[in-house]
Amino acid sequence: xxxxLSLVCMFCVCLLISVSFVPADAAASSKNxxxxxxxxxxxxxxxxxxAAFESRQNEYPIVLxxxxxxxxxxxxxxxxxxxxxxxxxxxxxxxxxxxxxxxVGPVSSNWDRACELYAQIKGGRVDYGEAHSRExxxxxxxxxxxxxxxxxxxxxxRSGKVNxxxxxxxxxxGQTVRLLTHLLENxxxxxxxxxxxxxxxxxxxxxxxxxxxxxxxxSSPHNGTTLTSLVGGxxxxxxxxxxxxxxxxxxxxxxxxxxxxxxxxxxKEKGESFDSxxxxxxxxxxxxxxxDTSQWDLSPDGAMELNQWVQAQPDxxxxxxxxxQTFRELFTGYEVAEPLMNPLFYISAAYxxxxxxxxxxxxxxxxxxxxxxxxVNTSSMPGPTSGSTDEIVxxxxxxxxxxxxxxxxxxxxxxxxxxxxxxxxxxRWYRGLAEMLGSLPDH
Length: 443
Known about the structure:
By secondary structure, the chain is an alpha/beta fold. 28% of the residues lie in helices and 12% in strands. The chain has a single domain, classed as Alpha/Beta hydrolase fold, catalytic domain (Rossmann fold, 3-Layer(aba) Sandwich), CATH 3.40.50. It is built from 14 helices and eleven strands. The strands form three sheets. The chain has a seven-stranded parallel beta sheet, with helices on both faces. Strands 3-4 form a two-stranded antiparallel sheet. The protein has a two-stranded antiparallel sheet with strand order 8-9. The longest helix has 16 residues.
């Protein structure tokens, strides 16, 4: 339990503390601001995605899915996971790309997050599955959502084509969107066997649902992250998150953050302080008794288990992006943080940059894992390899469905930089990504 919550504390603190590195007027629109000549701002993406074809081929909406420790648009007093003080979602909308931001469980398993994501997009009550919920000891049903895109999966009368979506996942969000796509196209035999036909969620029904046009993963731990081996005792405690949020937003007790563990009986009660709510979460039995959490899925062993059954689907375009902000230290050969990495990533970057493991009972970790972005090992980001049969190819401008089209490495970008948290404005980069997705033809 302490390992998991230490990790989420560490990640949230690292993301939120970047508020203090942003000028006070950064919350305003950047259109009329003078250029910032700081060294950090001068680092530009080493590549920007470009349209695969000259004309717009589809109008499918984009759904942004946050990673481990993430939050929704109505949390953190408006400080956005996707953009910080800038707004990537609104910017994409302004440029003609309908976009939605999901808010799934920040410490939940990829299975639970995928079920929540499905309900948030399509609408309806979250169904975690009869077999799954019984196995892990939590409620089968969760919150009810109106749906970002209720017509998802229906035939568009104008085009005669099925309404699809583009799924973009950062960090654990990449694992989550892979799992959702797999379930849509394959269903789940265990759930179908455990549930009567009239009660089975469409998500688990074996009927093939070609509802996802593309999957994009950014800085995702497809093979896990060795950071899960670090965070037992050195990461910040939960109280530091509360103190940091208070400092950043000027409030002492506000519903800034929701662990979204209602199905585990861990809902914030009316009038309850955040400190009390968080303490109940931290002291829960689930961290010791269940693998149905992100701590397992993010570990190299848990990721390999996921990779063994979650596969790339032949009719979906898959893209991946990697990040790094470490360099090889001359005397030791270890990877250590570059000077402009978020300072709170220094310890985790150094740990990941030197950690090895040779244990027959676990995934082997060698020096090929050392380069990282402070949270995830760079070698884990191009696509799943551990336990997986998926094929990864270097993207050459012609997207190949059913394979991982590796777009490339964003050099000197840490785990938060790539989503615009900090001083770097990533809106133009995401516009390029949206343009590329909009140019993908049906096949």
